Amino acid sequence: MGMYSGLASYVCYKVNGDLPANLNEAILTKLKEFSFQESDQTIPREKSIGWVSAENMASIFFDDLHFSKGPYLVFSLRIDTRKVPPLAFKAALLKEELKFKGATGKERLSIKEKEKLKDQVKSSLMKRSLPAPALYDVCWNTATGMLIFFSTSKTANAEFMDFFCASFELSLTPLSPFERAQMLIEKHGGKIKIEKLSKPAAGFDWSAIKKAV
Fold this sequence. Notes:
This protein is of the alpha+beta class. The protein is 40% helix and 20% strand.
């Protein structure tokens, strides 16, 4: 679930690297450069990835700086994937092989002919398939260098780390719950009680973000 839902699962990161002086302008440039672009239907991609507005997954408009809320930068990572069911691909390929044999009079196809048919069948099925979108919210506190990625999926986090680094030329260090607890204890001068850290979050709002990061 994302940050605008009632409950949220997330992974905390430490952002490493020097931030530019004109931060909002620099981030705006990068968000636009690496914004989500839908796959061309004539040449569909298996995966499309890019930044979108956290308020509207169909919007890549960032010029009004709505993603900047004080020291916080809030946006989302959208990943669309297209998949062809293996059995559907096999059935379509066998059908095309029969057509090819009937048209050429061949009993067997060469390796090159088989590969060509596979590419043609896959391309045809990909054009007819609908992309499955996934959306992951991001909240980045530029004052503390802490960032929250709203997913605990290993695959999603791996893709996010790679794309974030490519987009902003900054690296990320994931923080374990223990490391995060240590940081909170140090922040409060060692006076925070451990039982407070073990309580699950009942909800999520901007005040929770400020306390967390």
